[in-house]
């Protein structure tokens, strides 16, 4: 059998390699192989935003994300002054695409995401400030200049974040990316990597996807039960929520396994954040990719307040603070996050004794057979070189 190893991916019990069709056929009959998953392509998917979700409330209490590190797996980072002034908060950079050492972003998506999470507003005199403007960032490039990347690159990136989380004090992982989820999350290496990241102690925030408005369009890894999956609203450029509506592009639930997703929604239309074109510019973008770091920033504030916060408790608190805007749970999840409620002392106290249940499912849809035993699963990610011009 002729093959070329690309990655060993122990967090999902997998290897990534390339091989010819005949070898793939032979391998599929091997009793030690649980399933074969093709190494598919994955794609990248603030002034009013801060008012809409009431970030002034935690900031008035001096919760700005200080001391909390957020890992962003995306297209990279272009050194923008809003992330390096008044202090440089980029703790590390890892490149799984071109293996470069110095930070760069040849697409712009990752820089925009980083700014929504932790931009200081330095270049705009505070007008375009991130949700957690004092948070630290760990930048991991796993998407290329076109905004796409392979499943194996991203799983490897997540694995690296897990392995280095103690070194960088990483608490949260932002994944503003996705690939079509055509089967159970148990057959998606990305979703399995998210589950492992949560088990390791990371709060993981995933984009729902931009495949709406049809039902059942949640992408992977947004279909991972333990992640916080975020859909997008259009806030009509007002801080009030009574005129908010679900963005047409925002992916809807349920998942193939019947889980109720998205978990929450956040502003994701015409979001102003950092541009990679120069070191002080801004650009407006839309997508669940933009809504996701809004929630990630909120998680950074929450982790600053509660140093011993677990991913399960963080998710429960984020979901529980939401305001209903009148759409179905398939569209809005629990609703729009509300940081005034999230940081109210009475709200926080009830979560000290609350019982945490497993993620909710629709009883009438989907079949879920539990997690695959890490000791027996072997996933083979096949790169189809004869189909893709790479």
UniProtKB/TrEMBL annotation:
Instruction: Specify whether Transport is a keyword of the entry.
Output: no
Q: Does the keyword Hydrolase apply?
A: yes
Q: Name one Pfam family in it.
A: Peptidase_S8
Q: Which UniProt keywords apply?
A: Hydrolase, Membrane, Protease, Serine protease, Transmembrane, Transmembrane helix
Query: What residues does the Peptidase S8/S53 domain cover?
Result: 65-334
PROSITE patterns in alphabetical order: SUBTILASE, SUBTILASE_ASP, SUBTILASE_HIS, SUBTILASE_SER
**InterPro entries reported for this sequence:** Peptidase_S8/S53_dom, Peptidase_S8/S53_dom_sf, Peptidase_S8_Asp-AS, Peptidase_S8_His-AS, Peptidase_S8_Ser-AS, Peptidase_S8_subtilisin-like, Peptidase_S8_subtilisin-rel
Task: Give one GO biological process term.
Answer: proteolysis
- Residue ranges of the TM segments: 367-388
- An MF annotation (GO) of this entry: serine-type endopeptidase activity
The active site consists of 74 (charge relay system), 109 (charge relay system), 289 (charge relay system)
Record's superkingdom? Bacteria
Q: Which SUPFAM superfamilies match?
A: Subtilisin-like
Q: Which family does it belong to?
A: Belongs to the peptidase S8 family.
Q: Which PANTHER family match?
A: PEPTIDASE S8, SERINE PROTEASE APRX
Q: What is this protein called?
A: S8 family peptidase
Q: Which species is listed as the source?
A: Anaeromonas frigoriresistens
What is the organism lineage in this UniProt record?
Answer: Bacteria, Bacillati, Bacillota, Tissierellia, Tissierellales
